[in-house]
Structures are given as structure tokens and as C-alpha cells.
TrEMBL record:
GO CC aspect terms: cytoplasm
Recorded catalytic activity of this chain's protein: (1S,2R)-1-C-(indol-3-yl)glycerol 3-phosphate + L-serine = D-glyceraldehyde 3-phosphate + L-tryptophan + H2O
Family annotation (InterPro entries): Trp_synth_beta/beta-like (IPR023026), TrpB-like_PALP (IPR001926), TrpB-like_PALP_sf (IPR036052)
MF terms in GO: tryptophan synthase activity
Keywords associated with the record: Amino-acid biosynthesis, Aromatic amino acid biosynthesis, Lyase, Pyridoxal phosphate, Tryptophan biosynthesis
Cofactors that this protein relies on: pyridoxal 5'-phosphate
Protein name according to UniProt: tryptophan synthase
Protein EC: 4.2.1.20
Organism: Turnera subulata
Length: 80
């Protein structure tokens, strides 16, 4: 099996598909600007079972919010 980088705008779709195949929960953070531009990708992610969280702004803002969410999740896991 080989790995190919997905076309621009489809990282969330690829992640959602991988999570669906492995029966994992998936949360994708998308900037509101990108959601407007990529409504078909948004639909695919939701059909694959991903939770899509809208973040005010663009890809950079969504990436920052995803990192914050990841750190908060780690802190929750560490205390349980």
C-alpha cells in the first residue's frame, strides 16, 4: 500500500475516510472561509461520520483551534 497526498482541500475528507474505516471518532476543524469554498468536501466529511467544527477565519485559524482542542483533550485524558 502506498500513501499519496490528497488534492488541496481534501485532507479532512481523507482523515474522515480513514477514521470511518478504522471505526474511530473524527473531528475536523475548518475555517468558515474554507467551509464556504468547499461545501462538497464538508458534505463528504459529514457523510463519513466526521464532526466538523467551524472556526471563524481561515485554515490557519482552524489549525490553531485544532491544536488547542488536542491539548485540552490530552489534559482530560491525563486527569482521568
Amino acid at each position: 500500500m502506498s500513501w499519496r497526498q490528497p488534492p488541496p482541500g481534501q485532507h479532512g475528507v481523507a482523515t474522515a475516510a480513514a477514521c470511518a474505516k478504522l471505526a474511530l471518532d473524527c473531528t475536523v476543524f475548518m475555517g468558515s472561509i474554507d467551509i464556504e469554498k468547499q461545501s462538497s468536501n464538508l458534505l463528504l466529511m459529514k457523510l463519513l461520520g466526521a464532526e466538523v467544527k467551524s472556526v471563524q477565519g481561515n485554515f490557519k485559524d482552524a489549525s490553531s483551534e485544532a491544536m488547542r482542542g488536542w491539548v485540552e483533550n490530552l489534559e482530560t485524558i491525563a486527569t482521568t
